[in-house]
TrEMBL record:
<dbReference type="GO" id="GO:0070847">
    <property type="term" value="C:core mediator complex"/>
</dbReference>
<dbReference type="Pfam" id="PF10232">
    <property type="entry name" value="Med8"/>
</dbReference>
<dbReference type="GO" id="GO:0006357">
    <property type="term" value="P:regulation of transcription by RNA polymerase II"/>
</dbReference>
<keyword id="KW-0010">Activator</keyword>
<comment type="subunit">
    <text>Component of the Mediator complex.</text>
</comment>
<dbReference type="InterPro" id="IPR019364">
    <property type="entry name" value="Mediatior_Med8_fun/met"/>
</dbReference>
<dbReference type="GO" id="GO:0016592">
    <property type="term" value="C:mediator complex"/>
</dbReference>
<keyword id="KW-0805">Transcription regulation</keyword>
<dbReference type="GO" id="GO:0003712">
    <property type="term" value="F:transcription coregulator activity"/>
</dbReference>
<dbReference type="GO" id="GO:0000978">
    <property type="term" value="F:RNA polymerase II cis-regulatory region sequence-specific DNA binding"/>
</dbReference>
<keyword id="KW-0539">Nucleus</keyword>
<comment type="similarity">
    <text>Belongs to the Mediator complex subunit 8 family.</text>
</comment>
<keyword id="KW-0804">Transcription</keyword>
<comment type="function">
    <text>Component of the Mediator complex, a coactivator involved in the regulated transcription of nearly all RNA polymerase II-dependent genes. Mediator functions as a bridge to convey information from gene-specific regulatory proteins to the basal RNA polymerase II transcription machinery. Mediator is recruited to promoters by direct interactions with regulatory proteins and serves as a scaffold for the assembly of a functional preinitiation complex with RNA polymerase II and the general transcription factors.</text>
</comment>
<protein>
    <recommendedName>
        <fullName>Mediator of RNA polymerase II transcription subunit 8</fullName>
    </recommendedName>
</protein>
Length: 171
């Protein structure tokens, strides 16, 4: 019996694997670093790890969203070459249709706590802050023509550079 895998969306499914592997590795690294010390890690290291995890989670989420239709209609099943006696535990885990109890509880809690109106309100606030940010950025010019050090000020060298980096030059 010859199996035909032409209709299996292997490429789309394989796009998820490296992203999920990276995310899992980063989460495990963060967990290990926090478990190794009784105190919290250095704040900057913790923030860097968080940023990496957040970007990996965003990438994974976007890839899942792009392949939503494929994932929704793809069914997993073992082929004839799969040794079901040796990997019975793995097979039942992979073919499980029902969520784990803690996952089911998390899903139901989040579905009931968040309404569409709450999401719309969040979007409105985010839109308002983006407009405010654009307006504030229009008040400053970030170009190379602006002098960084003024002869009139008697501040320590370098202080004006930090103010420029933060505020820019007022228009």
């Amino acid at each position: 019996m010859s199996l035909n895998f032409d209709d299996v969306p292997v490429q789309k499914l394989e796009q998820l694997r490296p992203r999920l592997t990276q995310l899992t590795h980063s989460l495990r690294k963060l967990e290990d670093s926090m478990a190794a010390n009784p105190t919290l890690p250095n704040w900057s290291n913790l923030q860097n790890q968080y940023n990496v995890i957040l970007s990996q989670l965003t990438s994974f989420s976007k890839t899942m969203d792009l392949n939503k239709a494929v994932l929704k209609h793809t069914n997993a099943y073992p082929n004839t070459e799969f040794d079901t006696t040796q990997f019975e535990g793995l097979l039942t885990t992979l073919l499980r249709k029902k969520h784990l109890p803690e996952v089911e509880e998390w899903i139901s809690t989040n579905r009931t706590d968040v309404s569409q109106q709450d999401l719309d309100n969040d979007d409105a606030v985010a839109h308002e802050y983006l407009q405010l940010t654009d307006q504030l950025l229009e008040e400053f010019v970030f170009d190379d023509d602006t002098p960084l050090v003024s002869a009139e000020k008697s501040e320590a060298q370098g202080v004006d550079v930090y103010k420029y980096m933060f505020n820019g030059a007022a228009k």
